[in-house]
Amino acid sequence: MFVQFNGPDSTQEIIVATIANQKKPAQVVEIVHVPEKEVLVTRGISTHFGLREIAVPQDVMLPNIHEITEVLSYILERIATADDLKIPFRYDPEFELGDKVYILQEVEDFMILGYKE
Q1: What's the distance, CA 106 to chain centroid?
Q2: E strand intervals along the chain
Q3: pLDDT at position 8, please?
Q4: How many other β-carbons are positioned within 10 Å of the β-carbon of residue 117?
Q5: With DSSP H G I counted as helix, E B as strand and the rest as coil, what are the percentages for the chain, rounded to 5?
Q6: What percent of the chain stands above pLDDT 90?
Q7: Nearest alpha carbon to residue 79 among 41, 105, 44
Q8: What are phi and psi of 44, to 5 degrees?
Q9: The whole model's pTM is what?
Q10: Which residues face 87 on adjacent strands?
Q11: What is the C-alpha end-to-end distance of the chain, expressed in Å?
Q12: Quick check: 53 and 111 in contact, CB under 8 A?
């Protein structure tokens, strides 16, 4: 567990998963739960690839943690492949994986992941 305190308003961050690039094991992206913000965010996409981090509202992520982790792995694989091929990557605003349609919406410094119902 990683706990970060920022001044009088403390924010607790809990690492719930890590995803490593199989070809480049040093490229690790963490999925961090920030309960006070009711969100899970990636940490490492901006560092390794210069792209916006992905945020998932906890009410979307927690009941579907295995599924959403697979979706994040899919996105990270696409990012890493584009990086390996030296081609630009852009987040698709909508994509289908399995039997669901997922959406990525740019909000402030993040890409918010959700799905269509």
Answers
A1: 13
A2: 3-6, 9-12, 14-20, 28-34, 39-43, 53-57, 94-97, 100-107, 110-115
A3: 42
A4: 5
A5: 30, 45, 25
A6: 62
A7: 44
A8: 135, -20
A9: 0.86
A10: none
A11: 33
A12: yes
Rounded distance between C-alpha atoms, residue 99 and residue 87, angstroms = 28
3-class state of residue 98 by DSSP: coil
Residue 50: strand, helix, or coil: coil
What pLDDT, in 10s, does the model give residues 82-112?
A: 999 999 999 999 999 989 999 999 999 999 9
pLDDT band for position 3 (cuts 50, 70, 90): very low
Residue 28, judged by CB atoms within 10 A of its CB (0-12, 13-18, 19+), counts as middle
37: its two tokens: 């913000």
Do 58 and 42 form a contact (C-beta atoms < 8 A)? no
Structure tokens at 72: 């994040």
Residue 53 phi, psi (nearest 5): -70, 160
More confident residue, 37 or 94: 94
